[in-house]
Amino acid sequence: MGIITFIGFTFLxxxxxxxxxxxxxxxxxxxxxxxxxxxxxxxxAGSLLLTNLSTEQIVGLNGQAFSEGLSVMAWExxxxxxxxxxxxxxxxxxxxxxxxxxxxxxxxxxxxxTKAITSGLFxxxxxxxxxxxxLYSGALAISTIFDIPTLLGVSKTSALWITVFAIGIxxxxxxxxxxxxxxxxxxxxxxVGLLIGGAMIPVLGLMVIGDGNMISGFTELVSSNTDxxxxxxxxxxxxxxxxxxxxxxxxxxxxxxxxxxIIQRALGAKNLKEGQKGILLAAFIKILGPILVVxxxxxxxxxxGDIITxxxxxxxxxxxxxxxxxxxxxxxxxLFGAILSSFNSALxxxxxxxxxxxxxxxxxxxxxxxxxxxxxxxxxxxxxxxAMFIAPLIANAPSGLFGYLQQVNGCYTIPILTIIIVGYLxxxxxAIAAKVAIFSxxxxxxxxxxxxxxxxxxMFPHFLHVQGFLFLINVIVMLVIGKLYPREKAFELEYTRQxxxxxxxxxxxxxxxxxxxxxxxxxxxx
Length: 526
Prior knowledge:
By secondary structure, the chain is mainly α. It has helices at residues 2-21, 29-34, 41-52, 55-68, 74-97, 102-109, 112-145, 148-152, 156-209, 214-224, 247-257, 260-267, 272-287, 290-293, 295-304, 314-322, 328-363, 369-390, 401-408, 410-425, 431-453, 463-484, 507-524.
Protein backbone atom coordinates (compact mmCIF):
# COMPACT_ATOMS: atom_id res chain seq x y z
CA MET A 1 0.00 0.00 0.00
CA GLY A 2 2.81 2.40 0.91
CA ILE A 3 4.58 1.87 -2.41
CA ILE A 4 1.34 2.41 -4.38
CA THR A 5 0.74 5.72 -2.55
CA PHE A 6 4.34 6.69 -3.17
CA ILE A 7 4.18 6.01 -6.91
CA GLY A 8 0.75 7.65 -7.24
CA PHE A 9 1.73 10.95 -5.60
CA THR A 10 5.07 11.11 -7.44
CA PHE A 11 3.30 10.50 -10.78
CA LEU A 12 0.71 13.18 -10.00
CA UNK A 13 3.45 15.77 -9.41
CA UNK A 14 5.11 14.85 -12.71
CA UNK A 15 1.85 15.22 -14.67
CA UNK A 16 1.03 18.61 -13.14
CA UNK A 17 4.58 19.85 -13.81
CA UNK A 18 4.32 18.73 -17.44
CA UNK A 19 0.97 20.43 -18.02
CA UNK A 20 2.19 23.63 -16.34
CA UNK A 21 5.22 23.94 -18.63
CA UNK A 22 3.63 23.04 -21.99
CA UNK A 23 3.22 26.70 -22.97
CA UNK A 24 6.72 27.77 -21.89
CA UNK A 25 9.23 28.14 -24.73
CA UNK A 26 11.95 25.82 -23.44
CA UNK A 27 14.09 26.47 -26.52
CA UNK A 28 14.60 30.13 -25.68
CA UNK A 29 17.26 31.48 -23.37
CA UNK A 30 14.95 32.92 -20.70
CA UNK A 31 12.33 30.23 -21.21
CA UNK A 32 14.66 27.39 -20.27
CA UNK A 33 16.99 29.01 -17.76
CA UNK A 34 14.53 31.40 -16.04
CA UNK A 35 11.10 29.89 -16.70
CA UNK A 36 10.36 32.70 -19.15
CA UNK A 37 10.75 35.20 -16.28
CA UNK A 38 7.19 34.25 -15.32
CA UNK A 39 7.55 32.90 -11.78
CA UNK A 40 5.13 34.27 -9.19
CA UNK A 41 5.58 34.67 -5.42
CA UNK A 42 4.04 31.31 -4.31
CA UNK A 43 6.11 29.38 -6.88
CA UNK A 44 9.30 31.21 -5.91
CA ALA A 45 8.67 30.66 -2.19
CA GLY A 46 7.86 26.96 -2.61
CA SER A 47 10.87 26.34 -4.82
CA LEU A 48 13.23 28.21 -2.49
CA LEU A 49 12.07 26.21 0.52
CA LEU A 50 12.19 22.79 -1.09
CA THR A 51 15.50 23.44 -2.83
CA ASN A 52 16.90 24.13 0.63
CA LEU A 53 15.15 21.30 2.47
CA SER A 54 16.39 17.78 1.79
CA THR A 55 17.19 14.54 3.56
CA GLU A 56 20.65 15.47 4.84
CA GLN A 57 19.12 18.53 6.50
CA ILE A 58 15.97 16.86 7.87
CA VAL A 59 17.87 13.90 9.27
CA GLY A 60 21.12 15.70 10.15
CA LEU A 61 19.70 18.76 11.90
CA ASN A 62 17.23 16.68 13.90
CA GLY A 63 20.18 14.50 14.87
CA GLN A 64 22.03 17.56 16.15
CA ALA A 65 18.89 18.68 18.03
CA PHE A 66 18.72 15.21 19.60
CA SER A 67 22.22 15.78 21.00
CA GLU A 68 22.28 19.54 21.64
CA GLY A 69 18.75 20.92 21.60
CA LEU A 70 17.28 24.16 20.27
CA SER A 71 20.57 26.04 19.71
CA VAL A 72 21.06 24.38 16.32
CA MET A 73 17.99 26.28 15.06
CA ALA A 74 20.43 29.05 14.00
CA TRP A 75 20.77 27.30 10.63
CA GLU A 76 17.01 27.88 10.11
CA UNK A 77 15.99 31.09 11.89
CA UNK A 78 18.97 33.22 10.84
CA UNK A 79 18.30 32.25 7.24
CA UNK A 80 15.24 34.52 7.43
CA UNK A 81 17.45 37.55 8.18
CA UNK A 82 19.71 36.76 5.21
CA UNK A 83 16.63 36.42 2.99
CA UNK A 84 15.45 39.86 4.10
CA UNK A 85 18.81 41.34 3.05
CA UNK A 86 18.52 39.54 -0.29
CA UNK A 87 14.98 40.82 -0.92
CA UNK A 88 15.75 44.44 -0.04
CA UNK A 89 19.30 44.88 -1.28
CA UNK A 90 20.53 42.18 -3.68
CA UNK A 91 17.46 41.15 -5.72
CA UNK A 92 16.65 44.69 -6.98
CA UNK A 93 20.19 44.95 -8.33
CA UNK A 94 20.11 41.49 -9.91
CA UNK A 95 16.82 42.17 -11.72
CA UNK A 96 17.82 45.69 -12.72
CA UNK A 97 20.76 44.18 -14.63
CA UNK A 98 18.63 41.37 -16.07
CA UNK A 99 21.00 38.70 -14.75
CA UNK A 100 20.59 35.00 -15.55
CA UNK A 101 23.53 33.96 -13.36
CA UNK A 102 25.30 35.64 -10.45
CA UNK A 103 28.70 35.36 -12.19
CA UNK A 104 27.30 37.57 -14.99
CA UNK A 105 27.38 40.46 -12.54
CA UNK A 106 31.03 39.71 -11.82
CA UNK A 107 31.81 40.01 -15.54
CA UNK A 108 30.18 43.44 -15.68
CA UNK A 109 31.72 44.59 -12.40
CA UNK A 110 35.21 43.11 -12.84
CA UNK A 111 35.99 41.14 -16.02
CA UNK A 112 35.38 37.90 -17.95
CA UNK A 113 38.14 36.06 -16.10
CA THR A 114 36.55 36.71 -12.71
CA LYS A 115 33.24 35.38 -14.01
CA ALA A 116 34.85 32.23 -15.37
CA ILE A 117 36.73 31.51 -12.13
CA THR A 118 33.56 31.96 -10.07
CA SER A 119 31.47 29.75 -12.37
CA GLY A 120 34.17 27.09 -12.16
CA LEU A 121 34.11 27.25 -8.35
CA PHE A 122 30.33 26.89 -8.31
CA UNK A 123 30.39 23.93 -10.69
CA UNK A 124 33.19 22.20 -8.75
CA UNK A 125 31.23 22.55 -5.52
CA UNK A 126 28.09 21.14 -7.13
CA UNK A 127 29.64 18.09 -8.81
CA UNK A 128 32.07 17.12 -6.03
CA UNK A 129 29.99 17.98 -2.97
CA UNK A 130 26.33 18.89 -3.38
CA UNK A 131 24.98 16.56 -6.07
CA UNK A 132 26.61 13.31 -4.79
CA UNK A 133 25.71 14.09 -1.16
CA UNK A 134 22.05 14.71 -2.00
CA LEU A 135 21.89 11.53 -4.06
CA TYR A 136 23.59 9.42 -1.41
CA SER A 137 21.59 10.66 1.59
CA GLY A 138 18.34 10.51 -0.37
CA ALA A 139 18.97 7.01 -1.65
CA LEU A 140 19.84 5.85 1.84
CA ALA A 141 16.58 7.24 3.23
CA ILE A 142 14.33 5.79 0.51
CA SER A 143 16.11 2.44 0.56
CA THR A 144 15.64 2.21 4.34
CA ILE A 145 11.97 3.28 4.35
CA PHE A 146 10.94 0.68 1.76
CA ASP A 147 13.59 -1.89 2.70
CA ILE A 148 14.73 -2.09 -0.94
CA PRO A 149 17.29 -4.90 -0.30
CA THR A 150 14.53 -7.25 0.89
CA LEU A 151 12.00 -6.02 -1.67
CA LEU A 152 14.33 -6.66 -4.62
CA GLY A 153 16.35 -9.46 -3.06
CA VAL A 154 19.67 -7.64 -3.44
CA SER A 155 22.49 -6.55 -1.15
CA LYS A 156 22.47 -3.16 0.59
CA THR A 157 25.21 -1.96 -1.74
CA SER A 158 23.25 -2.98 -4.86
CA ALA A 159 20.09 -1.39 -3.45
CA LEU A 160 22.01 1.84 -2.89
CA TRP A 161 23.26 1.92 -6.50
CA ILE A 162 19.75 1.19 -7.83
CA THR A 163 18.13 3.91 -5.72
CA VAL A 164 20.84 6.47 -6.54
CA PHE A 165 20.32 5.98 -10.27
CA ALA A 166 16.52 6.04 -9.92
CA ILE A 167 16.64 9.39 -8.13
CA GLY A 168 19.32 10.72 -10.46
CA ILE A 169 17.48 9.81 -13.66
CA UNK A 170 14.12 11.20 -12.51
CA UNK A 171 15.76 14.38 -11.20
CA UNK A 172 17.69 14.80 -14.45
CA UNK A 173 14.50 14.58 -16.52
CA UNK A 174 13.00 17.45 -14.53
CA UNK A 175 16.11 19.61 -14.52
CA UNK A 176 17.62 18.97 -17.96
CA UNK A 177 14.57 18.46 -20.16
CA UNK A 178 12.03 20.58 -18.26
CA UNK A 179 14.05 23.66 -17.42
CA UNK A 180 13.59 25.94 -14.43
CA UNK A 181 9.81 26.18 -14.61
CA UNK A 182 9.34 22.38 -14.40
CA UNK A 183 11.70 22.34 -11.42
CA UNK A 184 9.91 25.25 -9.73
CA UNK A 185 6.38 23.87 -10.26
CA UNK A 186 7.28 20.40 -8.97
CA UNK A 187 9.07 22.05 -6.03
CA UNK A 188 5.96 24.03 -5.11
CA UNK A 189 3.68 20.97 -5.06
CA UNK A 190 6.20 18.93 -3.09
CA UNK A 191 6.78 21.84 -0.70
CA VAL A 192 3.10 21.79 0.28
CA GLY A 193 3.25 18.03 0.75
CA LEU A 194 6.45 18.21 2.77
CA LEU A 195 5.09 20.95 5.03
CA ILE A 196 1.95 18.89 5.70
CA GLY A 197 3.77 15.57 6.08
CA GLY A 198 6.67 17.08 8.00
CA ALA A 199 4.34 18.88 10.42
CA MET A 200 2.55 15.62 11.18
CA ILE A 201 5.67 14.07 12.72
CA PRO A 202 6.11 16.51 15.66
CA VAL A 203 2.33 16.71 16.14
CA LEU A 204 2.02 12.92 16.42
CA GLY A 205 5.13 12.78 18.59
CA LEU A 206 3.74 15.38 21.02
CA MET A 207 0.43 13.47 21.13
CA VAL A 208 2.33 10.33 22.14
CA ILE A 209 4.03 12.26 24.96
CA GLY A 210 0.74 13.86 26.07
CA ASP A 211 -1.40 10.69 25.80
CA GLY A 212 -3.37 12.11 22.88
CA ASN A 213 -3.16 15.80 23.89
CA MET A 214 -0.62 17.77 21.83
CA ILE A 215 -0.53 20.80 24.18
CA SER A 216 -0.01 18.61 27.23
CA GLY A 217 2.71 16.78 25.33
CA PHE A 218 4.56 20.01 24.53
CA THR A 219 4.28 21.17 28.16
CA GLU A 220 5.69 17.85 29.34
CA LEU A 221 8.47 17.97 26.73
CA VAL A 222 9.63 21.46 27.79
CA SER A 223 9.40 20.85 31.55
CA SER A 224 11.29 17.55 31.31
CA ASN A 225 14.02 18.83 28.96
CA THR A 226 14.68 22.45 29.96
CA ASP A 227 18.35 22.21 28.90
CA UNK A 228 17.26 21.32 25.36
CA UNK A 229 15.21 24.52 24.97
CA UNK A 230 18.00 27.09 25.11
CA UNK A 231 18.55 29.20 22.02
CA UNK A 232 22.14 30.18 22.77
CA UNK A 233 24.70 27.45 22.21
CA UNK A 234 27.80 27.17 24.38
CA UNK A 235 31.34 27.38 22.99
CA UNK A 236 31.44 23.57 22.97
CA UNK A 237 28.29 23.17 20.86
CA UNK A 238 28.23 22.78 17.07
CA UNK A 239 26.82 26.32 16.76
CA UNK A 240 28.25 28.54 19.55
CA UNK A 241 26.18 31.69 20.07
CA UNK A 242 29.22 33.85 19.28
CA UNK A 243 29.34 32.48 15.71
CA UNK A 244 26.05 34.26 15.00
CA UNK A 245 28.06 37.47 14.84
CA UNK A 246 30.95 36.16 12.74
CA UNK A 247 30.72 33.47 10.08
CA UNK A 248 27.11 32.27 10.50
CA UNK A 249 25.49 35.32 8.92
CA UNK A 250 28.07 35.30 6.11
CA UNK A 251 27.30 31.66 5.30
CA UNK A 252 23.57 32.43 5.34
CA UNK A 253 24.00 35.49 3.12
CA UNK A 254 26.07 33.54 0.62
CA UNK A 255 23.56 30.70 0.51
CA UNK A 256 20.39 32.77 0.18
CA UNK A 257 21.77 35.78 -1.67
CA UNK A 258 24.46 34.58 -4.06
CA UNK A 259 24.23 30.78 -4.44
CA UNK A 260 23.11 30.16 -8.03
CA UNK A 261 21.02 27.09 -7.11
CA ILE A 262 18.94 29.23 -4.74
CA ILE A 263 18.83 32.74 -6.20
CA GLN A 264 17.96 31.47 -9.70
CA ARG A 265 14.36 31.04 -8.51
CA ALA A 266 14.11 34.75 -7.72
CA LEU A 267 15.93 35.70 -10.94
CA GLY A 268 13.04 34.05 -12.81
CA ALA A 269 10.46 36.35 -11.15
CA LYS A 270 8.03 38.14 -13.48
CA ASN A 271 8.87 41.41 -11.67
CA LEU A 272 10.61 42.69 -8.54
CA LYS A 273 7.37 42.74 -6.53
CA GLU A 274 6.76 39.02 -7.07
CA GLY A 275 10.41 38.23 -6.34
CA GLN A 276 10.41 40.16 -3.06
CA LYS A 277 7.05 38.72 -1.98
CA GLY A 278 8.27 35.19 -2.78
CA ILE A 279 11.53 35.57 -0.83
CA LEU A 280 9.82 37.14 2.22
CA LEU A 281 7.06 34.49 2.22
CA ALA A 282 9.78 31.84 2.22
CA ALA A 283 11.61 33.75 5.00
CA PHE A 284 8.55 33.74 7.24
CA ILE A 285 8.03 30.01 6.73
CA LYS A 286 11.76 29.48 7.30
CA ILE A 287 11.39 30.92 10.83
CA LEU A 288 8.99 28.06 11.50
CA GLY A 289 11.53 25.59 10.09
CA PRO A 290 12.68 24.34 13.53
CA ILE A 291 9.24 22.74 13.93
CA LEU A 292 10.23 20.35 11.12
CA VAL A 293 13.99 19.99 11.54
CA VAL A 294 14.70 20.63 15.25
CA UNK A 295 11.64 19.83 17.40
CA UNK A 296 11.33 16.19 16.20
CA UNK A 297 14.92 15.57 17.35
CA UNK A 298 14.11 16.81 20.86
CA UNK A 299 10.89 14.72 20.89
CA UNK A 300 12.93 11.66 19.87
CA UNK A 301 15.35 12.36 22.73
CA UNK A 302 12.46 12.46 25.21
CA UNK A 303 10.84 9.26 23.89
CA UNK A 304 13.81 7.16 22.83
CA GLY A 305 16.88 8.82 24.34
CA ASP A 306 17.83 5.62 26.17
CA ILE A 307 17.70 3.34 23.14
CA ILE A 308 19.01 5.51 20.27
CA THR A 309 22.80 5.29 20.07
CA UNK A 310 23.41 7.31 16.90
CA UNK A 311 21.91 10.85 16.75
CA UNK A 312 21.15 10.54 13.01
CA UNK A 313 18.80 7.66 13.84
CA UNK A 314 16.55 10.02 15.84
CA UNK A 315 14.30 11.26 13.02
CA UNK A 316 13.86 7.93 11.15
CA UNK A 317 13.07 6.23 14.47
CA UNK A 318 10.44 8.83 15.35
CA UNK A 319 8.83 8.56 11.90
CA UNK A 320 8.72 4.79 12.06
CA UNK A 321 7.20 4.76 15.54
CA UNK A 322 4.56 7.53 15.35
CA UNK A 323 3.44 7.65 11.71
CA UNK A 324 0.50 5.35 10.79
CA UNK A 325 1.43 2.68 8.26
CA UNK A 326 -1.16 4.02 5.80
CA UNK A 327 0.71 7.35 5.57
CA UNK A 328 4.22 5.96 5.11
CA UNK A 329 3.87 6.02 1.31
CA UNK A 330 2.70 9.64 1.24
CA UNK A 331 5.50 10.77 3.54
CA UNK A 332 8.09 8.87 1.52
CA UNK A 333 6.75 10.53 -1.64
CA UNK A 334 7.13 14.07 -0.31
CA LEU A 335 10.54 13.16 1.11
CA PHE A 336 11.42 11.86 -2.35
CA GLY A 337 10.23 15.23 -3.69
CA ALA A 338 12.61 17.02 -1.32
CA ILE A 339 15.49 14.84 -2.49
CA LEU A 340 14.64 15.46 -6.14
CA SER A 341 14.31 19.19 -5.53
CA SER A 342 17.79 19.63 -4.09
CA PHE A 343 19.27 17.44 -6.83
CA ASN A 344 17.48 18.88 -9.85
CA SER A 345 17.80 22.47 -8.62
CA ALA A 346 21.58 22.20 -8.31
CA LEU A 347 21.72 20.38 -11.65
CA UNK A 348 19.57 23.01 -13.40
CA UNK A 349 21.81 25.75 -12.02
CA UNK A 350 24.90 23.87 -13.19
CA UNK A 351 23.42 23.63 -16.69
CA UNK A 352 22.71 27.38 -16.59
CA UNK A 353 26.22 28.27 -15.42
CA UNK A 354 27.84 26.13 -18.11
CA UNK A 355 25.63 27.25 -20.99
CA UNK A 356 25.65 30.96 -20.19
CA UNK A 357 29.05 31.56 -18.59
CA UNK A 358 31.31 28.97 -20.23
CA UNK A 359 29.89 27.66 -23.55
CA UNK A 360 28.74 31.06 -24.80
CA UNK A 361 31.88 32.81 -23.58
CA UNK A 362 34.68 30.38 -24.43
CA UNK A 363 33.43 27.63 -26.75
CA UNK A 364 31.02 29.28 -29.18
CA UNK A 365 30.76 33.06 -28.92
CA UNK A 366 28.30 33.15 -31.84
CA UNK A 367 26.01 30.50 -30.33
CA UNK A 368 22.27 31.01 -30.76
CA UNK A 369 19.85 30.67 -27.85
CA UNK A 370 18.91 27.17 -29.04
CA UNK A 371 22.59 26.13 -29.17
CA UNK A 372 23.24 27.50 -25.66
CA UNK A 373 20.29 25.55 -24.24
CA UNK A 374 21.33 22.38 -26.12
CA UNK A 375 24.92 22.60 -24.86
CA UNK A 376 23.67 23.10 -21.32
CA UNK A 377 21.48 20.01 -21.55
CA UNK A 378 24.38 17.88 -22.86
CA UNK A 379 26.62 19.11 -20.05
CA UNK A 380 23.84 18.39 -17.54
CA UNK A 381 23.59 14.76 -18.64
CA UNK A 382 27.36 14.28 -18.19
CA UNK A 383 27.28 16.02 -14.80
CA UNK A 384 24.34 13.92 -13.60
CA UNK A 385 26.06 10.69 -14.60
CA UNK A 386 29.25 11.70 -12.79
CA ALA A 387 27.27 12.50 -9.64
CA MET A 388 25.43 9.14 -9.85
CA PHE A 389 28.69 7.21 -10.06
CA ILE A 390 30.34 9.21 -7.26
CA ALA A 391 27.38 9.09 -4.82
CA PRO A 392 27.45 5.37 -3.82
CA LEU A 393 31.19 5.64 -3.11
CA ILE A 394 30.40 8.01 -0.23
CA ALA A 395 29.23 4.95 1.74
CA ASN A 396 32.91 3.99 2.10
CA ALA A 397 33.95 7.41 3.39
CA PRO A 398 34.76 8.04 7.07
CA SER A 399 32.04 9.07 9.52
CA GLY A 400 31.27 12.73 9.97
CA LEU A 401 31.61 13.35 6.25
CA PHE A 402 28.61 15.70 5.99
CA GLY A 403 29.87 18.00 8.72
CA TYR A 404 33.33 17.96 7.19
CA LEU A 405 32.01 18.84 3.74
CA GLN A 406 29.96 21.68 5.23
CA GLN A 407 33.20 23.03 6.63
CA VAL A 408 35.05 22.54 3.34
CA ASN A 409 32.45 24.59 1.44
CA GLY A 410 34.02 27.70 2.97
CA CYS A 411 36.82 27.35 0.41
CA TYR A 412 34.58 28.99 -2.17
CA THR A 413 31.62 30.50 -0.28
CA ILE A 414 33.58 33.22 1.55
CA PRO A 415 35.78 34.34 -1.40
CA ILE A 416 32.75 34.56 -3.73
CA LEU A 417 30.63 36.42 -1.18
CA THR A 418 33.48 38.87 -0.58
CA ILE A 419 33.88 39.93 -4.19
CA ILE A 420 30.11 40.27 -4.70
CA ILE A 421 29.57 42.42 -1.60
CA VAL A 422 32.61 44.61 -2.28
CA GLY A 423 31.58 44.81 -5.93
CA TYR A 424 28.20 46.31 -5.07
CA LEU A 425 29.41 48.56 -2.24
CA UNK A 426 32.32 50.12 -4.15
CA UNK A 427 32.78 51.57 -7.63
CA UNK A 428 36.52 51.55 -8.33
CA UNK A 429 37.88 48.25 -6.96
CA UNK A 430 39.68 46.59 -9.96
CA ALA A 431 39.40 43.05 -11.31
CA ILE A 432 42.85 42.08 -9.99
CA ALA A 433 41.58 42.66 -6.44
CA ALA A 434 38.73 40.19 -7.00
CA LYS A 435 41.08 37.54 -8.38
CA VAL A 436 43.51 37.97 -5.45
CA ALA A 437 40.61 37.66 -2.98
CA ILE A 438 39.30 34.48 -4.63
CA PHE A 439 42.62 32.66 -4.81
CA SER A 440 44.06 33.83 -1.47
CA UNK A 441 40.77 33.18 0.33
CA UNK A 442 40.40 29.68 -1.11
CA UNK A 443 44.05 28.71 -0.49
CA UNK A 444 44.24 30.07 3.07
CA UNK A 445 40.97 28.46 4.09
CA UNK A 446 41.96 25.21 2.39
CA UNK A 447 45.18 25.11 4.44
CA UNK A 448 43.15 25.72 7.61
CA UNK A 449 40.76 22.84 6.82
CA UNK A 450 43.66 20.49 6.04
CA UNK A 451 45.53 21.34 9.26
CA UNK A 452 42.38 21.25 11.38
CA UNK A 453 41.52 17.80 10.08
CA UNK A 454 45.02 16.37 10.60
CA UNK A 455 47.95 17.55 12.69
CA UNK A 456 46.31 20.48 14.54
CA UNK A 457 42.81 19.12 15.07
CA UNK A 458 40.90 21.04 17.73
CA MET A 459 43.52 23.78 18.15
CA PHE A 460 41.81 26.32 15.86
CA PRO A 461 38.74 28.47 16.61
CA HIS A 462 35.35 27.31 15.31
CA PHE A 463 35.31 27.19 11.51
CA LEU A 464 32.58 29.86 11.38
CA HIS A 465 34.86 32.22 13.32
CA VAL A 466 37.65 31.46 10.84
CA GLN A 467 35.33 32.24 7.93
CA GLY A 468 34.33 35.58 9.52
CA PHE A 469 37.98 36.52 10.02
CA LEU A 470 38.88 35.49 6.47
CA PHE A 471 36.02 37.61 5.07
CA LEU A 472 37.36 40.65 6.92
CA ILE A 473 40.91 40.04 5.65
CA ASN A 474 39.66 39.62 2.07
CA VAL A 475 37.72 42.89 2.23
CA ILE A 476 40.78 44.77 3.57
CA VAL A 477 43.01 43.29 0.85
CA MET A 478 40.55 44.32 -1.88
CA LEU A 479 40.22 47.86 -0.48
CA VAL A 480 44.01 48.27 -0.29
CA ILE A 481 44.47 47.09 -3.88
CA GLY A 482 41.63 49.37 -4.94
CA LYS A 483 43.34 52.32 -3.28
CA LEU A 484 46.63 51.58 -5.01
CA TYR A 485 45.28 50.54 -8.42
CA PRO A 486 41.71 51.89 -8.83
CA ARG A 487 39.54 51.32 -11.91
CA GLU A 488 39.82 54.08 -14.47
CA LYS A 489 36.03 54.33 -14.79
CA ALA A 490 33.61 54.02 -11.88
CA PHE A 491 31.19 51.07 -12.11
CA GLU A 492 27.51 51.90 -12.64
CA LEU A 493 24.53 49.55 -12.68
CA GLU A 494 22.64 49.52 -15.98
CA TYR A 495 18.87 49.00 -16.11
CA THR A 496 18.15 46.48 -18.89
CA ARG A 497 14.34 46.84 -18.52
CA GLN A 498 13.76 43.09 -18.90
CA UNK A 499 11.40 43.15 -15.91
CA UNK A 500 9.64 45.82 -13.87
CA UNK A 501 11.81 46.72 -10.84
CA UNK A 502 9.17 48.68 -8.93
CA UNK A 503 9.59 47.36 -5.35
CA UNK A 504 6.77 45.85 -3.32
CA UNK A 505 5.35 48.68 -1.19
CA UNK A 506 5.20 46.50 1.94
CA UNK A 507 8.72 45.05 1.63
CA UNK A 508 10.24 47.14 4.46
CA UNK A 509 7.32 46.59 6.85
CA UNK A 510 7.26 42.82 6.40
CA UNK A 511 11.05 42.67 6.63
CA UNK A 512 10.96 44.43 10.02
CA UNK A 513 8.31 41.97 11.25
CA UNK A 514 10.45 38.99 10.19
CA UNK A 515 13.61 40.33 11.89
CA UNK A 516 11.63 41.19 15.05
CA UNK A 517 10.18 37.67 15.10
CA UNK A 518 13.68 36.15 14.93
CA UNK A 519 14.89 38.37 17.80
CA UNK A 520 11.82 37.45 19.86
CA UNK A 521 12.49 33.72 19.46
CA UNK A 522 16.11 34.09 20.58
CA UNK A 523 15.21 36.28 23.56
CA UNK A 524 12.28 34.09 24.62
CA UNK A 525 14.35 30.90 24.63
CA UNK A 526 17.55 32.51 25.95
